Amino acid sequence: MAFERRKILLVPLDPVHDIGLKMIRRGLEQAGHQTLLLPPDLPPEEIVSIMGKEHPDHVMISRTLGYGVGEVLGRFVDLADAAGLRDKTTLVVGGMAVRPELAAELGFDAGFGPGTSVEEVVAFVEGRPYQPDLAGAKKQKKDITAGYAYDFRHGAIGNLLEKIVTDILTWDEGKISPGILRSRLRDESWDVESFRQGKVSREFSEAYAQLCDPVPQAFHRKGEVHPKTRRQTDQEIARLEDYLTKTKSRMSVSKVQHVEGQPKVFIQYGTGCPFMDIAHIKVCEAWGADGVVHFDPSWGARTEGFIGGFLTHQEDGSVITPENLSWIKAALEPSTLWQVRAHRGLNTAETVVLAGKLGADLTKINIAYGSLAAGTDPARLTVDGIEAIRMAVKYKLPFDVVTNEELAGVPAHKAFAGMLIVTALGRRLGARPILQPLFSYSPEVMIGGQMIDNYIDFNAAKIEALRSIIDAPLWPGAPIGFLTQTEDRVQSSMTTSLHAALAAALRVDAISIASSDEAYSGGPIIAASRVDTLQAVAEGFRFFGEGRIAPTSHAQRWADEMVDKIEAVLKEVAQAPSFVEALYAGLLGSKEEGAYPGRGGRGTVTEK
Amino acid sequence: MKTIGIAGTAKNTGKTTTASALLREAYRRQRRIAITSIGYDGEEWDNITGLPKPRLPVQRGTIVATARKCLAVSSANIRILEDTSITSALGSIVIGEVVDPGLVVIAGPNKSVEVGRVKNALARYRPDLLMVDGALNRIAPMVEVDGLILATGAARIVDPHRLARETESIARIFELPYRSPTFFSDNGGVAWRIGERWVSLPFSGAQLLTTEDGESLAKEVIDFLPQEHVEGTIQLPPLVTTKAIRSLLTAAGTRLKQWSLYFRDPISLLLSDLPEETYFMLEQMKSMGLRPFVRKNLPLLVVTVNPFYPEYDPGSQTYHARFLPSGLLEGRIGRKVRIPVMDVKRKGARSLWRKTMGF
Fold first, then answer.
1. Partners of A433 in the β-ladder
2. Is residue B172 located within the same domain as residue B239?
3. Which residues of A touch B38 (CB under 8 A)?
4. Do B238 and A70 touch (CB under 8 A)?
5. Which of A83, A158, A563, B143 is deepest in the core (most CB within 10 A)?
6. Helix or strand or coil: residue A310?
7. Which residues constitute the domain of residue B266?
8. Using the beta-carbon criterion (under 8 Å), do B238 and A52 form an inter-chain contact?
9. Banded pLDDT at B44 (limits 50, 70, 90)
């Protein structure tokens, strides 16, 4: 096909803003087209007069929209029409707030809004369909743990961890719990395909009910749902299907990262209503979230057994049921990483099984945190945690080891010691654990003053310390900047963005971010606040790129101190009668520090 | 088939309200209706101010010409009869028949020639009335209609006195006498009589837009004209501006006394400048002894007025709805023009129909 050189008149109608047109001009000229850039702010009749003399193939007008501007643009189109130039020339408008509907309303042949690429304009001029750079825009799931060997870099700490893990596994031998029995029943007897076809196995239901508390028993025997919950109505389900069909038909995902290697960004959902969760997820996917984390209600973690049904309730956290998880899974874009948390309660092991069977990519397990700050009995969570890690291996689910006990007041080095023990346990059992240090303004630093000058040094020290101990992936959370955010959405977005930029500069693998109203919403958060922080993080990534943030000398000193203290804690744990005894003794977080060994499931661990 | 255009002087002047009223009355009288628009209009929310706007309610049997993408967002069920292959920013323009009533989003062609093509295509379905809804202040394609309704109001100019003055100017432009010229095709030219013989010079371009264009035309005319005064005529290009005409008159006005000047139509005159400036120019011409005409007649049937205007609140960065006192605009403008002036919401659809379709 012969190349057809086009003549394009570029018209900045704004008094000053013609940079977009200049970029387009360069692109068009590089593509071999002839361009003529007019001076800014010419009256419409002068532009039409020039059109009459120059006979361009296309006229591209750039104008930021505001009240009264539409009339000016409409008048320009009218003048071109009345002058008989409309048939021979394509009229295009571009600028802030321009959409195809508006271009049509103003009488233009096409409209280009913000985010339009130069390539798109060139394709339009050449009359060919625009093929976006799919290689650049296409998102694929990334295995956050890829490339990590889990070698201990700190010999002494590695040896201590190996000993502690051996002791834990020895202690665990022959122990069983209702949670383990349920997870094995779910693993062996619950067929996900039959579930999807709506078939209920009475045999499974009855066997399962026998291992549950009364509320799940009532569900599996009589179909009664938890009194705090209700089933989604048929009308709600129809609306959800309609919403999903419409949304998916126009859905595209974007990237938050500016350069390769910047952390994957996770958001957390758990509004209580799966429909609202799905809407939030779709917004976040569209604005660049790489992964989503399922938050379940705290009562779910304290109840033996799961109920079922497509359920909603008016509390924080969305109930884990096979139906709820299946709807969430169905809503996800193929590129979205999906984590279902299993870390803290009486259903830890079974959650991993459910997550694995229903197609999750990641889970979350931490025996120390669940025992010390989430209310579960240390012995119970130890046996269930080991089972959960084994199931995570079976279902190929990497898991993060969260250290939220820091928020209760446990110092970082103790929380990290617990995290490292669970990580080493996972390493021994063949799992792919991910370290999750907090990037937060924790009680420890509030009292100790490590963040009086800046938020950089102590967070950088944490990463440095962990990296010097083990070669493992890092996923600061959860969410980053926690307790630095206020009710001011701009401030909240800003601090999230800066923490994300710090995480990127420290080359971590992933981060979890809050919405800009999350900490202070006092109720459901709004979708727009999700966009706030995703946009803010994208801008942070854009700003720093491959650039680095230089911590002060405090960071290295604190990192060295942290490693020494972790080693000291691990020595004490290794000398304790057992890991469970160490948890009770406060070695990984004492009552004075805000850690209380939980009571949920106490006395339920039995010998086989 | 009668073709009525509804043009607005600005956004929010009540085009869609007028169109809806005309539709209601047409249905009551059991007339077969066809609807199209110049470009896109009838959206639920105003694209610029973010305030709500009505969409057109249509009944079974109505023929519509709209962009394909608009069918999906219309609640009326529309059966496609043909694809006109006219493209737009919202997909190709199709002609369809309303099968189940509902609201419709109309986005028709946005060029004059395309409006002409769609008009011809719609005529084949034998409607009694074709309604062409304007979009924003787009008016150029209205040359294809048989009569025009002008929607104006406080959203155009909040000051009733100034609005009345402008509307009067518009009405006067539409009253310019019609005469069929004989010498030239559409681009026009200059002709003068020497004895019994007419000398004619056609224009090469289709514009008379800048001061330089006016001066250059004046120079050409003067260079060719004999020294003595002669009878003559100028058929102006389709698009002129008052600026260019003024410079023509300044340089050659005295030589053109008693000459006839042909403008294309009232629409092209409206595009030449602000209506008051254009009207003033026409009066100036007459006072210099020139005789302005239009080559194509287009009656202005009714002026509808809307007291609503959006007021910008810098504090909240949003627009708020405001209204002028009821009846104020009808009185002020009605005293200035010879054609009916009405607030459709006050006077109702029947009155609008009687005053519009009486021609």
1. A399
2. no
3. 107
4. no
5. A83
6. coil
7. 189-294
8. no
9. low
